[in-house]
Design a protein that fits this description.
The chain is about 35% helix and about 20% strand. By secondary structure, it is an alpha+beta fold. α7 runs antiparallel to α9, α12 packs antiparallel against α13 and α13 (about 400-415) crosses α14. The protein binds flavin-adenine dinucleotide.
Length: about 475
């Protein structure tokens, strides 16, 4: 029997997609890669995933996991491979209120988890613009970050356990519900962020948190990025660490948002250079009460600190959301980043991290360097400023691979000099392979290759991603 026939025997005809049925799995979200999987399979259980892997091995065919296909680095590229879509493994198995955990299948869409958890008066804090499509398996595999890392950490910090089907077809059960477990190497954290190169995540145990009782959200025009950092520290000190999101959007970003959406409004009449969106949240009943001025106490505290900074000249203007609608408009602006980056092509997608007090140094250095490299280049900047992550998208003046790689290399130089990383939260996939080759410490890279060889000696699991070929 052929591989396709064998797969159909395991999954049923309708869950082995070939021909035009697999077309929607043939490009990445950014449209930078086009590819043609041999077929797309859609299992519903861990055992089926294991059977698929064993079949792929016996036919010497590669496997590429795909969740919501919202990754930004070509990680789901799957020419001539079995693309294994986790979309039907979409059950939230259990929400355990007392221990604040959820047990979920890998294909659960992030927004669906948010909704169910919210109905149980809890929250799962990982969030970003693609939450309506991104899946648990995808966010674990990319160790996604998003807008709340400042307060809750990135995906690795939010996961207690995983189940994974190894390239051998064996099922590795790491479905721990423990907050402490020092029994040997932490294989869970190895699998998280492996971008599907070490196996297929089928389930996870994730941490849940108390649902905030109130938010205070504002757009703030700051004098400079240094003033923004000082304001962040003052807000953290003044509110007992209530800052959940601290997002930077400069003038060019606001222009981009206006170009993207004709109905969008400018945050202020004046075109300020540096804007920050800040969100405080509280689970404390007392701070979510209304004060004598008719405002929620958390909001009043935000107003007090902003007023003080306004009087001292560190901020130039501020607007606090007066209701949920205004808050959502602020979030919509921030979460349009990926769509804004698609306004022009070609693009160079840089997702860098530097220490918090080096963000302004990075941007100042790039202001000088980019025009030297490409006088006609345009740039879109948006940053999870509270955790030092800058999305520095360059629209170069010409679509030339060498030219684009040179720009990336120069950006990496600046980042390296500031003690930063060329990949903050999107991972490596295909698009960051040359950066990985240039920048990753040799010893670390060799250890990674040895781990890959030990777990996947035949190299069938998402081959060609994350690890550049050894010379
Ligand atoms: C509009 C937009 C906004 C975004 N904002 C952010 C942001 O703020 N922060 C951030 O960190 N990221 C952001 N991202 C990128 C983010 O990395 C992805 O959206 C998400 O983490 C991937 O989830 P997915 O299910 O779509 O995975 P996919 O794109 O399907 O896959 C991503 C990688 O994981 C692997 N994979 C998928 N499922 C599994 C599995 N079950 N087992 C093993 N490997 C698997 C794939 O092979 C691939 O290598 C954004 C993306 C978009 C489009």
């Amino acid at each position: 029997m052929s591989l396709i026939e064998e797969l159909k025997k395991v999954l049923g005809d309708q869950n082995v997609l070939i021909g035009t049925d697999k077309e929607r799995y043939s490009s990445d979200w950014l449209g930078q890669y086009q590819f043609e999987p041999l077929c797309v399979v859609r299992p519903t259980s861990t055992e089926e995933v294991s059977d698929i892997v064993r079949l792929a091995r016996s036919f010497h065919v590669n496997i590429v996991p795909v969740g919501g296909n919202t990754g930004l680095n070509g990680g789901t590229h799957s020419d001539n491979a079995i693309s294994i879509s986790m979309e039907r493994m979409n059950k939230i198995r259990e929400i355990r209120l007392n221990s604040k955990i959820a047990i979920v299948e890998a294909g659960v869409i992030l927004a669906n988890l948010h909704q169910i958890v919210n109905e149980n008066d809890l929250m799962f804090p990982l969030t970003f613009g693609a939450r309506g499509s991104a899946t648990i398996g995808g966010v674990l595999s990319t160790n996604a970050g998003g807008s709340n890392v400042l307060k809750y950490g990135n995906t690795r910090d939010l996961v207690l356990g995983v189940e994974i089907v190894l390239p051998s077809g064996e099922i590795m059960n790491l479905m721990s519900e423990l907050h402490k477990d020092n029994s040997g190497y932490c294989l869970r954290d190895l699998v998280i962020g492996a971008e599907g190169t070490l196996g297929i995540i089928t389930k996870a145990v994730v941490k849940l948190f108390p649902k905030p009782k109130a938010y205070a959200t504002a757009m703030v025009a700051v004098k400079s990025l240094d003033s923004a950092l000082a304001l962040l520290n003052e807000l953290q000190d003044g509110t007992g660490g209530a800052v959940a999101a601290y997002e930077y959007m400069p003038k060019r970003y606001i222009q981009g948002h206006m170009e993207l959406s004709s109905s969008s409004k400018k945050p202020f009449k004046k075109d300020y250079e540096h804007l920050v969106m800040v969100e405080l949240e509280t689970t404390v009943e007392l701070f979510s009460r209304y004060g004598d001025d008719g405002k929620v106490l958390l909001s009043s505290e935000l107003e007090r600190i902003l007023n003080k900074n306004l009087n001292e000249g560190f901020i130039l203007d501020a607007h606090i959301a007066q209701n949920e609608e205004q808050r959502l408009i602020m979030w919509e602006r921030r979460e349009a980043a990926a769509e804004i980056s698609l306004l022009k092509t070609p693009l160079i997608n840089n997702d860098i991290a530097v220490p918090l007090d080096k963000v302004s140094k990075f941007l100042t250095a790039m202001e000088k360097k980019l025009p030297e490299l490409d006088p006609g280049a345009d740039v879109l900047i948006v940053s999870h400023l509270g955790d030092g992550n800058v999305h520095y998208t360059v629209w170069p003046s010409k679509d030339d691979e060498k030219h684009k790689d040179k720009i990336m290399e120069e950006i990496e130089n600046v980042v390296l000099n500031l003690g930063g990383s060329f990949s903050a939260e999107h991972g490596i996939g295909l698009s960051k392979l040359s950066s990985m080759e240039r920048r990753k410490d040799r010893v670390s890279l060799n250890v990674m290759r040895q781990i890959k060889n030990a777990i996947d000696p035949e190299g069938i699991m998402n081959p060609g991603k994350v690890l550049p070929k050894a010379n």
